[in-house]
FAD synthase
Amino acid sequence: MKILRLHYPLAADTGYPEKTVIAMGFFDGFHKGHQAVLQRAKDEAAQRGAKLAVLTYDHHPALVYKKMTSHEKRYLTLLDYNWRYSKSSV
């Protein structure tokens, strides 16, 4: 598993030039719905001969359009989050 951190403004070169399928969303847990999304992306990447990447957000998207603190929407610690994804064979 390779972790790339993207920050605004984006650099011209992210260092990831390979053909890639991206599963994108706010993965606030690792329930069956998220597992299904990741499996679908993994299958699509295999079918296309591409790498699989997961793009997620550090904070819930509601922070952009609602007045709530990041603490209210943090469900997993970063360590727990990364560990769960590493065990999912993504």
